[in-house]
Amino acid sequence: MGLVTVFLITTGFVQPNIEDHAHILDKETHTLVTEKNNRYFQTKEQPQIVVITVKRLNKLTPKMLDHSKRTVFIVVGQKGKKRNVQIYSTKDLHSAFTEVARGNILRAEVDKLRSQNNATFNKGIRFVFRACATRVDQQYQYALDKYDLTQAEQNKVARPHSVALPIALALAFLITGITYFLRRFSHRDPISKK
Q: What distance in Å separates the CA atoms of residue 2 and residue 150, rounded to the nearest whole number?
């Protein structure tokens, strides 16, 4: 009876690795999440990366965020055809998962994360998971393994596709056009007065 009580107490507070309430994660994603977290369970620090899917697009902050340690949460909200993917980390991992880092991870595979095709979407989620695992491994100085990003993929996360350049070019073109028309009309005014 005592052993059963100890077992229930020690395992009752462990966050499961996957909570797929929206039923969108495939077998390959389940396998990746389970295997990498099993490796983490064998380390001294025992970090964890949890993937949660819910049937809503807002209020995605995990309930266990403030009560957990060394945990990263990848939360997928889905309502109808829309999906929202967010990354959260516990306070002890904030330095590895800054707002910029989380944004870069999500932007690196934004096309796959927006896909309506479930297989493509799962590829995107696996990339996000692997990117988070790479940052956790670097934070705790673990040796990188087959579940982590390659150097080329890490470069992709470090320099994700940015919409800033096209927007800047469009603004420059717009300003140039406005300046051209203003100069043209300002030159006509003195001529018409003569």
A: 47
